[in-house]
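quick one before i forget lol
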Amino acid sequence: MNDTPKYIYKKQFEILYSKPLKDRLKGLFEMTELSRKIIQNRIRTKIPNISEIDLKIEMFKTFYRYDFDKETLELIAEQMACFLRKENET
């Protein structure tokens, strides 16, 4: 949905770019962390007893589902699982 008038977008950018870079980056990092937590909570709701390793893999699949075809995504996820489980053993 894109129902925001252009003059509102322009005003939003004026406000955003009037802030110092430090503040803009802080806001970006906070929004990124918030989105990660929201996705993690959604995954945990679907799979309540998910392990931390499997959660990382599901996060990867969620973030990159449009960047790779299904076969490649699954192949990468399998390799991640092997790596993370091996790393966890040491």
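fyi The chain has two domains: 1-48, 50-90.
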